[in-house]
Amino acid sequence: MARIPLLLASKFIFLSILSSSGVIRCTRGENNDDHGFIQSLDRESMGLKKEKLSHFRIYWHDIVSGRNATSIRVVRPSNASVTGFGIINMIDNPLTLGPNLSSKLVGRAQGFYALSSQEEVGLLMSMNFAFTEGKYNGSTITVLGRNPVFNKVREMRVIGGSGLFRFARGYVQARTNTLNLTTGDAIVEYTCYVMHY
Ligand SMILES: *[C@@H]1O[C@H](CO)[C@@H](O)[C@H](O)[C@H]1NC(C)=O
Ligand SMILES: *[C@@H]1O[C@H](CO)[C@@H](O)[C@H](O)[C@H]1NC(C)=O
Ligand SMILES: *[C@@H]1O[C@H](CO)[C@@H](O)[C@H](O)[C@H]1NC(C)=O
Ligand SMILES: *[C@@H]1O[C@H](CO)[C@@H](O)[C@H](O)[C@H]1NC(C)=O
Ligand SMILES: *[C@@H]1O[C@H](CO)[C@@H](O)[C@H](O)[C@H]1NC(C)=O
User: Fold this and answer.
1) C-alpha gyration radius of the chain
2) Is ligand 4 within 6 A of the CB of residue 137?
3) Is there an atom of ligand 1 within 6 Å of 5 CB?
4) How far lies 35's CA from each of 15, 30, 180, in Å?
5) How do the domains of the chain map onto residue ranges?
6) DSSP letters for 134-163
7) Do β-strands 88-96 and 105-115 pair in parallel, antiparallel, or remain unpaired?
8) Which of 138, 98, 132, 90 is nearest to 114 (CA)?
9) How many Å apart are CA 31 and CA 188, to the nearest integer?
10) For the chain, which ranges sit under pLDDT 50?
11) Is 104 in the pocket of ligand 4 (CB under 6 A)?
12) Which of 41, 55, 77, 112 is packed most tightly, with the most Cβ within 10 A?
């Protein structure tokens, strides 16, 4: 609209004086860069001034055994391969500040992981870290990515967030702290780097 020749633009204004609101909207659009139902907002008016980088380390407890399991197999392929391809677990895993489950609980990892590799034990992780601690209570970040569990470091994307983590982007690095081969329970360290306002 902005590149409409002057002559045509003045015709629009003339028409708008003459008649319908439709034409008036059209002229206004030319001036204010208003493309209908989508409007641009000033960042500062929403309190979004400077983007910050937050860093934290938390421990993710995948408890698959016992009566208080937090990670439950919801899909079991009839013919699971050695890599477990096709298995899906739904999780509500505790997130703590230390590797010990009895250390301070700061939130829960809610979502699922799916074994999505036929070549190795590789997970697709899709989960929200729902924080419950202090001012972060009620805020979340969303982690999505590929997790080949036997690699030393696995990097996954932070694709968004809510509350204090609105507009979040970043990444996490997962490192296995302990894996109990008897029970299948695992404790994984998540180092998180998150840009947000
Ligand atoms: C399960 O949780 C309940 C309630 O928190 C607790 O009393 C019980 O000891 C736990 N059981 C196991 C096996 O951890
Ligand atoms: C499962 O694997 C067995 C042995 O390899 C095979 O005989 C059977 O047909 C498979 N079943 C299905 C549903 O693929
Ligand atoms: C975890 O903490 C509990 C209680 O503080 C303690 O008894 C236990 O030894 C700790 N476990 C490890 C592995 O440090
Ligand atoms: C977090 O917020 C919820 C709902 O507002 C509240 O019930 C809960 O007690 C809070 N938790 C903590 C640890 O402050
Ligand atoms: C694995 O879990 C079992 C059952 O809770 C426990 O007896 C054993 O000590 C654990 N092994 C390790 C290496 O933590």
Assistant:
1) 25
2) yes
3) no
4) 20, 9, 57
5) 49-196
6) GGGTT-EEEEEEEEETTSS-EEEEEEEEEG
7) antiparallel
8) 90
9) 55
10) 1-8, 11-31
11) no
12) 112
* Euclidean distance between the first and the last CA atom of the chain, given in angstroms as a whole number: 33
pLDDT digits (tens, 9 = 90+) for 36-46: 899 999 988 98
**65-91: pLDDT as tens digits:** 999 999 999 999 998 789 999 999 999
How far is ligand 3, taken at its centre, from the CA of residue 187, in Å?
A: 14
Which two three-digit tokens encode residue 149? 């569990």
CATH number for the domain whose boundaries are 49-196: 2.40.480.10
Location of structure tokens 């329970």: 185
As a whole number of angstroms, the distance between CA 75 and CA 159 comes to 25
Match 């180092």 to its residue by tokens.
Answer: 191
Chain centroid to Cα 30, Å, comes to: 37
Contact (Cβ atoms closer than 8 angstroms) between residue 60 and residue 187: yes
Half-sphere exposure of 12 (CA within 13 A, CB side): 19
Q: Quote the pLDDT of residue 16.
A: 45
Ligand in nearest proximity to the CA of 178: 5
